[in-house]
């Protein structure tokens, strides 16, 4: 049960530490006969990779995916798809500052207590480097779900919010700026915010909004495996995520039923969509939208006190090249996890037709 | 995959519709030798049952659990525990008003489209009546986890908020009022709010906060099965839930890393707890706390327009006895799901010791 | 993981001890819209029930199944199907003879050691009474797979063998005699054998052969979940089973490749079928056939020495009414498990079509 | 569900085709802190590899395993262990003879029908090359289960049987000859048999017996996941296996209960062991032993008729270097699968202690 798999029918299992020879994964259950666009897969990885702009970490890793199986003559064979991404940036650095200390608000302490020892180099398995494998699998899931559109964007950085509802946004503009906010004015403020935070040697949180369009009616399973429950788990499994809401979310708790109910049109669509495209855990054909909260990155370039493995409080300071704000690089990860959830339910849904 | 099971090692599978002969479930994986307190189990059901106070639905159902297996001489045997709760309130009513209409913001439309037909009586499988089975299993999980304390309480009803942090509350007062808010002044306001909403024939949303104390270090699995990700899924699977946040949650997105990081004490505890007791998906021994958003109940006593199965828009009005606010009865459900998640991870964690 | 579930997409979870109030189960994943023939389900239970003929145990239990959920207006709804079978024969007997002794070749000793205590009444959870729940679920699976025919029959009792290959048998004759052997001459010898064994207060083993016809090409999953591997597991999970072989089975080990290979006809069928209808773990459209070995029932009416819970060797003798040979009543169980395996793979196979 | 995973708590997922760049796998759930003996792992691979003796295929592949994750400073970290084995023998050969034909009694036809296309080079995913990954994971499971001894050996080749019971054999002799039969006289006959069969351009089947000693009491789960049921599935999932029996097996069907029952000694051991070390699906502390039937290899060096993809019957002849008898190389695979089953149940069993 060691937690390295996601999905039931379209299933991803991942492995790898940030400073081992490679990270990688196995996709099991991808239907046969899917013609893959390998450039599109690499493009998703490039959206996530370090060093892509001047508001993200300046580490350089090409993050090139190599497929080892499950694909023949450019098409999936229905058997398991193995892949690896080599770690090219694993130079033997001095890790003594983290070998013997537990960084605050990282997983160092909990891994050590749970497992008795840990790969301390760069966070080991708890490093967000692992999410590159999610992006590979999600890119394949996106191709499988070619008629569904999946758009995530930065909806806040610190206290700078994109106030417009998603319906008023032009998603083609999301990639036009480094922070991945489809409104250029707000994007500029977010970028300034991140730069100023970085100058302080500090980090800042933010939120990502994701919109899924053209999802067919009927995806999701009742009771425990409701569509939004699995979307929530998927998002909460991403490093640094602290919250998830869909449709009316936390704001909906202040509303009355008479305000919140989505009245029907004759064709089964609804006049409003506070339900967020899901009713009783099952998609109803309306847009699905949700919001994901990311905390500020724990590694800061300021001196902090921390605990060492001898039980003493010591001073430490972040080294290396880290993200001042995780949100811009999280966009493709949120999309990938959404694609994995949808692909899984799409396959599950096929089992109900007699 | 039809969604009726929860958990991997401490596993609950449920069945039953609101108007069938009975609902019930099977608990598989509960360790052998657990001496059960049957009164405590029934007590949890009584906290959830309809008709318990004058701010909840006035339907009367005794909700008496009958155990059919897996228990011998008062102790669990390690084999599957089957149980049923008879539906005593299933009188043959006139359901024609929902047989041919899809109630707004209910699961009627999506079930019909997914499965081709549906048990329309009282919501069928999508009824929140199903959560009674979760409460039974959760009550057993609580007894298994006897050293962990699990306290949920109403933290808002509509725009009435309990502003105090959980540390300032006396949880022994939660059950002292009908709305299950441990602050009596705020509770009184919440109760007034619910009564006034009910008079309007309307409903209102709210939030539940839950605090888990004395959770041992090390529960949770890295990567996809992080402790908070599974807690999030568990909560989002409860009827009417629209959001989940833990620790600093959505507020944490506005913070800087230097503010958000939880610095260590020498004993491994932390001075602050914005992490919410979980780091890298694994419990760190601090209190775990999270907040769950419930939308207003969709069934209102006002006339609404809706869609019928012939594709026409018609008028309908809620009948019967419904909750004006779901939150007071949701408290034991939130606790039950938290207990199920913890029991499952507790067992998973045992598999890591050599 | 406690072992009480079978199947991945068409999934059965069972509960219940032989002397509790009821046994039962939950079927999750049965597609919606299946019109059920309830008489046919009860008929399968009647084929398994005690007291049905004079060569089986003379215990009387009606074994009437009651469905509690998942069915509306005679059709499956796609939600979980809960059912129970009340134990009517659970009179408070004197169980002291087994309370403090471990019956030889039963599960008494291993359950006690594994779980620390056990329900000693009639074998508790280890009783073959549990298989009645498999028959219920299998009967529904058979109806789901209406175009596939599943025929099991008694192919040996002790050293009395039905030598004819299955192709030479008339399966309509299987139910014409109490031992369920489709050849009336051999059946008569088997019945004599069982009667003579019973007179000695002894028991005897036997084999069941099962033939699956009109299985579509493509069922089964490669590598670990080969169709015959899951069939083997299904059969080996039935009480008293010691072996499984399919196609050429153990005899095939003595053959040469040039003899064993099944050459093709132009339509993709094969001239011979030593493969037993499965190649590479996937059905090829030919008849699937396999053989299951049942040991003699462990409860005998002769005095035996055994161990008591104080660590002393004591004399004991079987009491009550037991089967002298388990095979006649095992026929519907073998068929039920085969149906469950096929239904599961049938649903899995639907997930591969783009 | 695509069948590429085995185990629940000690879980192996594999990928790879015989002629892709590499095969590999992920082991998830191996407890942390296990110090690995890498030479012992490679030694198991060497026992399976082609070209190791003159009675197996003369293909040359070094089969060197490379670990990519989950191990730090020589010890398992509790996170997923990824590994690959590069395919060094994947020279671009002429595969046109199998591209357009379905080899008799191979998986070519069924894969093509199930998935719509297939990697035809060397059998693709259906190649027994995949079992190398099982051997890697099994070797780690063996090290985890260091107190349990697992010994498999060749018990028959064609009609040459090793008649001695396993108790009379010296397992230290198993590796002393190429056929892996611990009796040197019988081994010599088996080797002669294989050589003579090879000269004919033909192949021959055989059986493997496996003995598990010092298995603790209590492994296995009741009802559907009985220890022998999972062992059976594990063995039947190995390429070319047609049957499985344990303890008295098919012979036990001819016995009476009074002969078959294993009477107890005062210490809980039994005087006989026809049960094969398992009662009610749970290990009882006695030796576990079972027998596995392997059919003759389907690829023969004689001309055969077969079907091509145009629906015509054509002549074909095996090319390349194939095993005349699969059994000698299957010994480490049988042991590996047994180790995986035991490791999984060992971890499951830990979840029952309060």
Automatic annotation (TrEMBL), chains A, B, C, D:
Domain of life of the native organism: Bacteria
Binding site for NADP(+): 48
Top-level enzyme category: lyase
Cofactors required: FMNH2
Keywords, alphabetical: Amino-acid biosynthesis, Aromatic amino acid biosynthesis, FAD, Flavoprotein, FMN, Lyase, NADP
A molecular function GO annotation: chorismate synthase activity
GO cellular component labels: cytosol
Subunit structure: Homotetramer.
Protein name as catalogued: Chorismate synthase
Gene that specifies this protein: aroC
